Amino acid sequence: MISRLILISSLSLLLLGIVIVYSSSAIVAHLGYHDSIFFLKRQLFYALVGVGVFVGAQYVDPAYYRKYAYYLYVLAIALLVLVLVPGIGKSAGGAARWISLGVIRIQAGEIFKFALVVYLAMSLAKKAERMTLFRVGIVPHLLLPGVAMVLLLLEPDFGTTVIVALVTFVMLFIGGARVAYLLGAVLLAIPVAIQVISSSPYRMARVMAFLDPWTHRQDSGYQVVQSLMSLGSGGWFGLGLGQGPSKLYFLPAAHTDFILAVIGEELGFVGILFVIACFACLLFCGFWVALKSKDNFNTYLASGLTSVIAIQAVLNTFVVMGLVPTKGLTLPLVSYGGSSLMVACLMIGVLFRLARGLKQ
Question: Taking the complete model, does pTM exceed 0.85, yes or no?
Answer without folding.
Answer: yes
